[in-house]
From TrEMBL:
HAMAP family xrefs: GSH_S
Catalytic activity, EC: 6.3.2.3
Entries under SUPFAM superfamilies matching the protein: Glutathione synthetase ATP-binding domain-like, PreATP-grasp domain
GO cellular component: cytoplasm
Protein name: Glutathione synthetase
Catalytic activity, reaction form: gamma-L-glutamyl-L-cysteine + glycine + ATP = glutathione + ADP + phosphate + H(+)
Species annotation: Ulvibacterium marinum
Similarity comment text for this entry: Belongs to the prokaryotic GSH synthase family.
Name of the encoding gene: gshB
Length: 343
């Protein structure tokens, strides 16, 4: 098959720790045609969606190590029509560019896209998790999303617990996630002003969420493939921060799923699959779901190292099976059409 990774440029890959590179490596080892293109390189050429791609030339012997493969890979630049690929694998970093999705809309019936465009649209910010329909906060921490500063202030005042989390709806990498404490109420109005109201008169939705006790011990990142967990790790915040994101100074450690985490995956898996969110990374604290990361979840190289697994192999098996299903459906329909035509 031919697969196009829609992601950051080849030169920006970290050859030691990059989940996208592990996926690319797996495809090249299986002798699939592999190209990369960044969202900025999408192009309409004579009304056909194309991309300036970095194509990896086929190689006879592929090194088993990611670092050597990255060095060894021989690449060329080529403009290629996106509908000619069997698969487009979204690995671009957030935030999601809505125009990129419009480009992909034009090929969505021809190409299998991971994750689906509908899923990416629905889950590209934290509203997806906040609106999961869990009014008793069994699997999601009690969450409010609003632009109404009076409403948010009232929720803080009425909260039974001392601590709450305030974060932007569209944030990522831990940016803007702050811990607020009722004992420091004098700052809160000013913080709400800052988060909600922009200087140009526009405003933002913000999330106000129950602080999950135990978060200082770290959160758990679970990778789910087709609704099933395929790997997990713990992320522990640095000593001077409450956020566990690696980009915010958190460190990673081994983690085996608890009973509660397994139950959470079982509960949310079917919805993820229904929404076309085939490969995602969820953030879980104290067994509760905090975020679903749908664009470019990482952690595969770390999990491979500590568990001696090859998570990328499962992911590419799944993608191949989806392409095969599509091909079989096409062949079946052609056979039936011939039967009618020749009757
Ligand atoms: N409700 C919460 N309770 C405790 N800690 C939280 C909560 N929400 C977020 N955090 C901490 O902040 C980090 C980043 O929050 P998250 O919602 O995952 O946003 P981002 O998209 O920036 O990663 C989490 O990994 C966790 O360490
Ligand atoms: Mg997160």
């Amino acid at each position: 098959m031919n697969i196009c990774f829609l992601m950051y440029p080849w030169e920006e890959i970290d050859p030691e720790n990059d989940t996208s590179l592990a996926l690319i490596h797996e495809c090249v080892k299986r002798n699939h045609g592999v190209a990369l293109c960044s969202p900025a390189n999408l192009t309409i050429r004579n009304s056909v969606t194309n991309a300036f791609c970095t194509v990896i030339n086929r190689m006879e012997k592929v090194s088993g190590s990611l670092k050597s493969f990255y060095k060894q890979a021989d690449i060329r630049e080529e403009m290629l029509p996106l509908a000619g690929f069997d698969v487009i694998f979204m690995r671009a970093n957030p935030p999601l560019d809505p125009i990129m999705l419009n480009f992909l809309d034009s090929v969505k019936d021809d190409v299998f896209i991971v994750n689906s465009l509908q899923g990416l649209r629905e889950a590209n910010n934290k509203l997806y998790t906040a609106a999961f329909g869990d009014s008793h906060s069994n699997i999601i921490p009690a969450t409010h999303v609003s632009k109404n500063k009076n409403y948010l202030l009232r929720q803080i005042k009425e909260s039974k617990s001392e601590k709450m989390i305030l974060k932007p709806l569209n944030g990522f990498g831990g940016s803007g996630v702050i811990l607020i404490e009722k004992s420091a109420m004098s700052n809160i109005k000013s913080l709400l002003d800052f988060y909600v109201t922009n200087s140009d008169g526009t405003s933002n939705y913000v999330i106000l969420q129950e602080y999950i006790e135990g978060a200082d011990q770290g959160d758990v990142r679970i990778l789910l493939l087709n609704g099933e967990p395929i790997g997990a790790m713990k992320r522990v915040p640095g000593s001077d921060d409450h956020r566990s994101n690696v980009s915010a100074g958190g460190s990673v450690a081994k983690h085996s799923l608890t009973k509660q985490e397994k139950a959470l995956c079982k509960q949310i898996g079917p919805k993820l699959v229904k929404d076309g969110l085939y490969f995602v990374g969820i953030d879980v604290i104290g067994g509760k779901l905090v975020e679903v990361n749908v664009m470019s979840p990482g952690g595969v190289t770390y999990m491979n190292k500590v568990y001696k697994t090859k998570i990328q192999s499962k992911v590419i098996d799944f993608v191949e099976s989806k392409v095969m299903d599509k091909l079989k459906a096409f062949q079946r329909r052609s056979r039936l059409r011939d039967e009618v035509e020749n009757a």
